Amino acid sequence: MRRTAMVALLSALAVQPLSAQSMRTVTMSRQLEDGDEVEVSVEYSVGRFSVRSVDEGLLYRMNLRYDEDRFEPVAEYSGHRLDIGVESQGRSRGRGDRESGEFELELARGVPMDLDMEFGAVQADFDLGGLALTGLELSTGASESIIDISEPNRMEMGTARFEVGAAEFTLHNLGNLNAERIEFDAGVGSLVLGLDGEWQRDAHLSIDMGLGALELRVPEGLGIRLRKDSFLTSLDSEGLVKRGDIFESLDWNDADRQVTIDLDAAFGSVKVVWIR
Amino acid sequence: MLQQLLPRSILALGLAAALAPFAAQAQVREVVSKQVSVGRADATLNLEFSDESTLEISLRDGAVLIDGEPMGAFEPGGEVDAAWRELLGQAVALEDGSLSEALADWTVPADLAGSLADVARAIDRALEEALDGIDVQVDAADGTVSISIGDERSFLRALLGSTDRLGLFPAALAGLGADVRVHVGEDVEIAEDEIVTGNLVVIDGDLRIDGEVRGTVVVIGGTVDLIEGSEVGGAVRLADSRLVRNLGSVGDGVVDIEDGSNVEVVATDRLRDQIREEVRREYEVADRVRVRVRDERGSLLSAPFRSVAQAAGGLMENAFTVLILALLGAGAVVFAGDKVDVIAETARRSPRRAAMVGVAGTFLLLPAWILGFVALAISIIGIPVAIAWLPLFPIAACLAAAVGYLAVARNTGEWLADSHYPWTGWIRKSNPLITMVGGLLGLMALFAAANVLSIVPFFGFITGLLLVAAVIVTFLAVQIGFGAVLLTRAGRRREYWPTYDADAAWQEAMSVDVEEEVREAREPSDVGGRGEGDA
User: Fold this and answer.
1) What is the pTM of this model?
2) CA of B82: which chain A residue's CA is closest?
3) CB < 8 Å from A in window 383-422 of B
4) Cα B345 to the center of its chain, rounded Å
5) A77 to B92: CB separation less than 8 angstroms, yes or no
6) A27/B35 CB distance under 8 A
7) Which of A121-125, A164-168, B438-442, B476-480 comes out lowest in average pLDDT?
8) How far apart are CA B379 and CA B396, in angstroms?
9) Distance between CA atoms of B315 and B309, rounded to whole angstroms?
10) Are A159 and A178 in contact (CB under 8 A)?
11) A11, A71, A104, best to mutate vs chain B, most B CBs in 10 Å
């Protein structure tokens, strides 16, 4: 639906010459050559961003609206490496009333992919469901990000890394990521991690948080073990049993899948919420 | 022999296209990458094909560029621009096959004429050549037939789209000699330096000849455009086609196959109309140019008035600034008059010290802002305060600078009131607000003088000097005022108390010569009395 709206917008903008601001619309796409693994690097600094999977025999398709005075689109594909996004041209008029950009990215469904995404001040909406991820690295600055892995990842992933700056960061269906190790490095802000989804193996979750609030949404039946190393951080450990320095879910020993969580937090609060 | 070979070749190709569509489709160039980029001043299409070749068509800043080469001009927002942007609007949502079809099917807007039509044709041709180009060589024992066709759709359309057109083939192709070049479903241009030694057949496409065709030209279902200087050795045969113009030479004349008439007469009428249209357009352009020249002359004449208007605008700006500051000052006097007094007193008594403190404070503002935020943020209780700190600290700093500036303005007003300079008699020290307004006007006087002087030609340098002086005065006033605010903790700590020194007062009282004072006090009345007596 969003894509349809974006295409309609781009079509309308293409038909009528733009006049008010130096906003520019670009749509790019590339046909899929083969099913080999692709290394994808995405960079976007300011604006709204979304990513989802696409069929239609495409490697990628992106619809972009940006300020041509300040940014320049990048889309380079060579040797199964795709660099895509927007680069700053390093000059800004410093006007505060500028319209923010918009970046919609669709990536090939089912093609093995090592995805590396780097964002600045971005309002992001991800649906990584359907992508065959072999690796994932996501770095955000001051952002508001909602990530959903709506379908189980078909590929096994070694480590997924999330670096979150000053942000509101929400992640759903973390279990669908099919990663052995998941690392979060959060600076300041609010972090909501939904441990729902289909856990295909036991996993290790490492959370390093500076200042902020962390909410862990854990589905009943998933065994979790929490090791906390904190300075001034409160823990609402409802449903967990404390054994020495660690907290465990009541069914830790009997759970089909076990997730170990290492939490290193400086200031803030941690809350465990059980979901049915 | 050739006459039999040609229709047979075309028929064979038609059957091949009809019966083996997949094979034919495989030959169509595949678009592997597409980029549609639309901005205010340009609309660009980039295509990359499976053989790694590329095509870039860009309408940018009034110029049409094909693979970077300028092909002509267009009017931004005009018909060509609109048609191109409409095509790109469709291309945004299309991929591969459907994209190729949409691009290849694009045609020159029907209402275009002259150079704009030429530019549009160049775009059309570039698209078709990039997307459709399939060349087929049919060898024959006694001659060569070179057939170039577009995609299979255009070929079938050319053959089957009109049964009437099929009936025209025998007559149109009758008597052609050896060496025939056939183009189906694509536009053809014979460049200025190009020579076609044999015959040329174009089916379902437009032909533009700028060079030379030594044989006969046959066009079926298209148009022919003979540019000035072009040459056709044989005849130009038109079947279900139209002659756009004939500015070249045609050896055996232009013949309409359908009715056998000489179409040059018709074409001449059309050409005449076209020339009339172009002349009319030229007149319109000339009129527009005349109007523009008149406008430019008008603007030259009004240049002095423009500088007066600019100066008036600058003065209005100064007056508006004084008004805003005066309102702020009124608020400060009403709600915190005693604090303003303290600040003003400090600024008056030790301006140098206040200035130094102001400059130091200005440099420390940013570190203080950041460190304050960090200090608040690391304590959980202080986090809400830290959020408020970010906007409130800069606001407080600006307010401090403004109040300090107003205090300095009040001191300036008092000094002006005592100075007895012209036009300062209205400043009454008894009213702090009027004193402050007088001081503001005094501080802004250099800006106003610069604005007034900018009216006079050749005084740009002096105007610049005045502006620099005005900026320095304002900077100093702000720094002194800001420093005084810092020294007095926003007027809450009095730096200079009106002290009573009993010893000093006694000494002063004792040093007075009472008799002298009394004599001086009496002297005026004595003088008056003597005057009256003399009278």
Assistant:
1) 0.51
2) A15
3) 383
4) 52
5) no
6) yes
7) A164-168
8) 23
9) 10
10) no
11) A11
Q: How far apart are CA B247 and CA B227, in angstroms?
A: 5
Mean pLDDT to the nearest integer, A200-212: 89
Q: What is the DSSP string of B328-344?
A: HHHHHHHHHHHHHHHHH
CA nearest to A270, candidates A216, A208, A231: A216
Enter the tokens of residue A164: 């979150």
What does the pLDDT average to over B289-313? 60
Nearest to B96 by CA among B23, B27, B31: B31
Alpha carbon of A72 to those of A20, A77, B37, B342: distances in Å?
Answer: 19, 16, 11, 55
Rounded to a whole number of angstroms, the distance from the CA of B107 to the nearest CA of chain A is 16
CB A156 within 8 A of CB A176: no
**How far apart, in whole angstroms, are the C-alpha atoms of residue A49 and residue A6?**
12
Instruction: List, in sequence order, every residue forming a beta bridge with A171; answer none if it has no partner.
Output: A147, A193
Sorting pLDDT into bands at 50, 70 and 90, what band is B526? very low
Smallest CA–CA distance, residue A145 to chain B, in Å, is 21
Kindly tell me if the per-residue pLDDT of B533 is higher than 90: no
- Of the pLDDT bands very low, low, confident and very high (cuts 50, 70, 90), residue B17 is very low
Tell me the chain A residues in contact with residue B95 when contact means C-beta distances shorter than 8 Å: 29, 31, 56-58, 61
d(CA B481, CA B488): 11
Coil, strand or helix at A151: coil
Question: Which residues are CB-neighbours of A251 under 8 A, at least 6 positions away?
Answer: A221, A223
% pLDDT > 70, chain B: 74
Q: In the sheet that B242-246 helps form, which strands lie side by side, from edge to edge?
A: B188-190, B207-209, B223-226, B242-246
φ, ψ dihedrals at A257, nearest 5°: -125, 140
Nearest to A154, CA basis, from A61, A60, A37, A51: A37
Q: What span, in angstroms and rounded, lies between the C-alpha atoms of A162 and B434? A: 63
CA separation for the pair B15, A114 (Å, rounded):
48
pLDDT-wise least confident of A51-65, A158-172, B396-410, B514-528: B514-528
**Spatial separation of the C-alpha atoms in residues B155 and B456, rounded to whole Å:** 75
Residue numbers in B near A79 (CB within 8 A): none
Which secondary structure element, helix H or strand E, spans residue B391, and what is its range?
A: helix B383-419
**Of A80, A84, A93, A81, the residue nearest A64 (C-alpha):** A84
Q: Centre a 10 Å sphere on the Cβ of residue A41 and count the other Cβ atoms it contains.
A: 17
**Which residue did the predictor score with more confidence, B490 or A82?**
A82
Q: Which two tokens stand for residue B103?
A: 């691009």
User: ∠ CA A15-A17-A19 to the nearest 5 degrees?
Assistant: 145
Is 80 exceeded by the pLDDT of residue A172?
Answer: yes
Q: Output the six-digit token pair for B161.
A: 């789209």
Q: Residue A17: which of B32, B81, B93 has the nearest Cβ? A: B81
Reduce the DSSP state of residue B148 to 3 states and report it: strand
Q: What is the interface pTM, i.e. ipTM, of the complex? A: 0.75
Residue of A nearest to B89 (CA): A11
* Residues B263/B255, Cβ–Cβ less than 8 Å: yes
CA torsion through residues A218, A221, A227, A233, sign: positive
Check pLDDT > 60 for residue B2: no
Q: Which of B439, B499, B485 is nearest to B339 (CA)?
A: B485
Distance CA A248, CA A262 (A): 12
Residue B196's identity, in one-letter code, is V
In sequence order, what are the residues at sequence separation of 6 or more whose Cβ sits closer than 8 angstroms to the Cβ of residue A149? A127, A128, A129, A171, A172, A173, A174, A176, A177, A197
Closest-CA residue to B135 (of B32, B219, B56, B27): B27
- Phi and psi dihedrals of B468, rounded to 5? -60, -45
Interchain proximity A27–B40, CB inside 8 Å: no
